[in-house]
Amino acid sequence: MAHKLAAGNWKMNGTRADLGQIMALAAAHPDPAVDISVCLPATLISEAAQHVADHPITIGAQDCHSAGSGAHTGDIAAQQLLDAGARDVILGHSERRTDHGEDDALIRAKLVAAGDAGLRPILCVGESLAERDAGRTLERIGAQIDGALEGSDGPPSALVIAYEPIWAIGTGRTPSLDQIGEVHDFMREQLKARYGDTAAAAVPLLYGGSVKPGNAAEIFGVPNVDGALVGGASLKESDFTPIITALSAS
Ligand code: PGA
């Protein structure tokens, strides 16, 4: 069985003054059976990692470069994120695919770089509304998974996959539970075909896109949903803790 994971994605939000939210999250004594990660802007990683050092919470980043070092102004290598205290890294988020033109081949290279550095990658996949309306959701998800995992014999170490329909991110709209279940079952089958039943079962499959305290429990009741990648509702401890509690109870 995959570990349960509640991952927060602060995106380009927050300054050091907001780190109290992470202290409060740590103080809420979350269930040790649920992994918690908060993926922060790079500027906050080092200080936040020190705050959670004695707590069962890890700090993550939101992207890394595919190279280990070199002439890449403004970019950050996976090893540097690890050195700052990150243990997880979101890769292939739809906002990076759109804002920075990231394609599956680049995301594959970043997955390898993250794995080499010892970071746990949270690979994001998801369809646009046009793709869903055209009945191409599973085709799109399958292509993104294939593109990112191509050539790997086993799952990249500690792989996590997050299904995030682009039209559900930050919009307050969520797919139906049947639609979430269909995609999560499909992703598990894709992983089984690629790596075998045991390795596939160990990969946490997260749902992301407008997860809130009010809808978390029903989403976590869907088979093959092992947790959530939470954007807006991860910014405040008072929103994130009830989501973690719902995951713990699922
Ligand atoms: P949201 O973002 O929870 O604010 O919809 C999720 C994400 O983009 O990871």
Automatic annotation (TrEMBL):
Pathway: Carbohydrate metabolism; erythritol degradation; Carbohydrate degradation; glycolysis; D-glyceraldehyde 3-phosphate from glycerone phosphate: step 1/1; Carbohydrate biosynthesis; gluconeogenesis. GO terms for cellular component: cytosol. It holds the Pfam family TIM. It is found in: Cytoplasm. Its EC number is 5.3.1.1. It catalyses: L-erythrulose 1-phosphate = D-erythrulose 4-phosphate; D-glyceraldehyde 3-phosphate = dihydroxyacetone phosphate. Its main location: cytoplasm. InterPro entries: Aldolase_TIM, TIM_sf, TrioseP_Isoase_bac/euk, Triosephosphate_isomerase, Triosephosphate_isomerase_AS. The active site is at residues 93, 164. Coiled coil: none annotated. It comes from the Bacteria. Substrate binds at residues 9-11, 170, 210, 231-232. GO terms for biological process: gluconeogenesis; glyceraldehyde-3-phosphate biosynthetic process; glycerol catabolic process; glycolytic process. Keywords: Cytoplasm, Gluconeogenesis, Glycolysis, Isomerase. Homodimer. Belongs to the triosephosphate isomerase family. This is Triosephosphate isomerase. It comes from Sediminimonas qiaohouensis.
